[in-house]
Amino acid sequence: SLYVSEYFSQSAQKLSFYSWYGNAKLFHFHVPEDTVLLRWLLQASRGKGPECTSMEITVHFRHGAPPVINPLGTRFPANATIRPSYNISITLSTAVQNTTFVNVTSPAAGDWFIAAHLPEAAGRIEVKGFSTPCPYMFQADMFVLRLTDMPVLEPGVPMPHTVVSPAKPLHVKVFVPKYAAGMRFQLSSCVTSERRACTVRVLLGSITLPQSFQRSLTCTGSINCSLALESPPWEKWLQIMVESLGTANASVSVEMLASFTVCRPGSASSFFNFISLNQSQAGARPGAAGGSAPAAGEAPRNASGQRSSCLQSLPVVREDLDVVSVRYRLLNGPSVPVSSLSPTLLLLNLNTGMDSGGSLVVNLLLNKTSVSLANATVVACVSAASPVLSLNATRNCSTAFSQGYPLSVSTSSAEAMLIVLYPQTDDWFLSLQLLCPKGQGECGTAEAKVTVFAYLTPCFNDCGPYGQCSLLRRHGYLYAGCSCKAGWGGWSCTDDTKAQTVGAQNLATLLLTLSNLMFLPAIAVAVHRYYLVEASVYTYTMFFSTFYHACDQPGVAVMCIMDYDTLQYCDFLGSVVSIWVTILCMARLKKILKYVLFILGTLLIAMSLQLDRRGVWNMMGPCLFALVIMVTAWVHHGAKRRHCYPSSWKRWVFYLLPGITLAFTAISVYAFMETNENYYYTHSIWHVLVACSVAFLLPPRDKHKKPWAWSQKLTCRYQICQNDREELYAVT
Predict the structure, then answer these.
(1) What is the CA radius of gyration of the chain?
(2) Cβ atoms of residues 189 and 254 within 8 Å
(3) What is the rounded CA–CA span in Å between residue 567 and residue 564?
(4) Is 429 within 8 Å of 382 (Cβ atoms)?
């Protein structure tokens, strides 16, 4: 046999601490057919700075779809399927880099996914630029060993083969046809090259993670041994590996035979029925009364064929709506006839390669008036690769190499729902059958009507009122995840364990918005001292900060007067410009110079915020530059007057020192104390401290300006006016 090795690599990604699925870094690989060995090379590394500590990286694996993970231990939505992913841990302690290998023998062909992430996020809000986070990098490479000339086992034809040695197992494959209800594998004539009784082990199927349903068969001696499989995967190649358990030097000769039991479908989905349905629906909406009338008329004609067939397959149309959004529509209408004679089968096509990043939702609704037997139950199974055709014999919905998901409806419970999170790329089947407690004879020819709604959605229920559905991308692959807020958690933001109450949400909104009213004293002081431009800036900041935080709330207490991004930009701009004009006002510059710096600084701040809105230097840069100007101006004033400036000790003790203390306290709270949990009151404290510091730091008005005297300006009585005209003398 000729083996070919192939190597696939993807670029490294920077890992993040986990708070929702978007923090997990996804790697997408495609394993080719006839692969006999798969090896993952996992490389993790960290920075060398003092901020880098030992860290544990969790890596999840899954075949067919992204892994469903739950690092936070939150609850999944009701009726959702939960199967933990296969994961390993990689520890970075003293070593800067860690290399780990993971081997998979006889892996399933198709899409494989790897997701890696750091432990749970601490929840601290870090200001960009104040601290340098440690970079943790992760890269996944894939090596495959592929057999180029794998022998094909033809159904019904005995085929002799030789296992050369225990170190070189024999690999063959057989194609499973469509409508295969069962498969029987038989191994016979097992002898060694030394003419002794042999011992071999046969492995049927491929390994899939997190769960592997590979079937094993051990044959000893020359007697025949066989293995029967129910519902093998349709229209797929099935790998069979035979390995010798004997001595190292002896070869083993075996003879293998594979046979299939094929199920003949009913005539409900024949080509002519499909054409007639399309013609009848030319002027009517699919699923309306005009489309269901022909199917009802054909039911008596198909009764004889239904008794002789083992399943009834109904035509289903796949309707693509958007990215990771599909609706399945039955041509005969949403109502499906279900009997006890044979299962009714619906095909849900999810094999495009771009459907595994959402959630498959199947909803069944029983029409109670259609069931004549009160104790009858409609049993359903949702499975991938092959349908469950023996619902009356087994209730666990298992096929040859996979485990399906059971559903049931009855007159006592007429509705059932199933949510498959990240369904694997494959053909999915919905099997339905009517069951009676005393067997098929009790049901007779009874028939139930079940309304089926099946669709693929990016996020179930659009993540609810306390979540946001985000579309994520890894190269060309798209998948969706829910980002929860207001303390809610879980896959679809349905876990209310740590959720905020409505009262807490209202309190948070009131604190973050009403705390901006502390700018009113600063505005009043600025107006009283004739700093009208500064007062206008403070009013602008108070207004947009109030309505930005009213729009930024995660819960139900939300009010947005304009676009969120616009409110955020105006809030950030007003905050930085307020600091800029306050420090320049303290510098006591000439009016023309002060206003030029006001305008020029505002324009530069607006440009820098557009480039990086959350950068720390967008605030620190203007502050430091304004402080340099203020200190330079104060030194100039002090040198000119030959004494310290400001000269009054009362100005330092009662105004400047309290204002500076409030400003530094506000910066400390903003930079080092804010977390996701205490944000609503720590950020409110920031609002109060900054507004109060502005009221203290504003300098007094110029001595030549008189205070506002409205009583002198708005008078209705006679006044003795002073003549301030200058006397002009003519010189002759």
Answers:
(1) 38
(2) yes
(3) 5
(4) yes
Number of helical (H) and strand (E) elements in the chain, helices listed first: 14, 31
Residue-wise pLDDT tens digits, 622-643: 888 999 999 999 898 888 887 8
Q: How far is CA 84 from CA 60, 317, 355, 421, in A?
A: 10, 32, 20, 11
Structural domains of the chain ordered from first start? 3-147 (2.60.120.380), 159-262 (2.60.120.380), 315-457 (2.60.120.680), 502-697 (1.20.1070)
Answer whether 362's CB lies under 8 Å from 430's CB: yes
Q: Which residue has the tokens 């170190």?
A: 167
> E strands within 584-667?
none
- How far apart, in whole angstroms, are the C-alpha atoms of residue 539 and residue 561? 17
> Is the full-model pTM beyond 0.90?
no
Alpha helices (H) in 432-487, listed in sequence order: 440-443
pLDDT more than 90, % of the chain:
47
> Which two structure tokens, joined as six digits, stand for 141?
């490479």
Give the mean model confidence (pLDDT) for residues 649-674.
88
104/109 Cα distance (integer angstroms): 12
Strands 359-366 and 415-421: antiparallel
Residue 716 DSSP one-character state:
-
CA dist 427 → 182, 355, 416, 641 (Å): 18, 11, 22, 88
The amino acid sitting at 108 is: A
Query: For residue 358, is pLDDT > 90?
Result: yes
Q: Is the peptide bond before 66 cis (omega within 30 degrees of 0)?
A: no
Return the DSSP state at 670.
I
The bridge status of strand 159-163 relative to strand 252-262 is antiparallel
| 483-to-24, 323, 463, 558 alpha-carbon distances in Å | 13, 18, 8, 17
For 27-56, the pLDDT digits (tens) are: 999 999 999 999 999 999 998 888 888 899
**In this predicted model, what pLDDT tens digit does every residue of 489-519 receive, in sequence order?**
999 999 989 888 888 888 989 999 999 999 9
Q: Quickly state the pLDDT bin for 333 (edges 50, 70, 90).
A: confident
Listed residue (140, 130, 157, 65) closest to 100, CA to CA: 140
**Cβ within 8 Å of residue 591, ≥6 positions away:** none
Residue 623 CB neighbour total at 10 angstroms: 17
The three-point CA angle 616-620-623 to 5° equals: 155
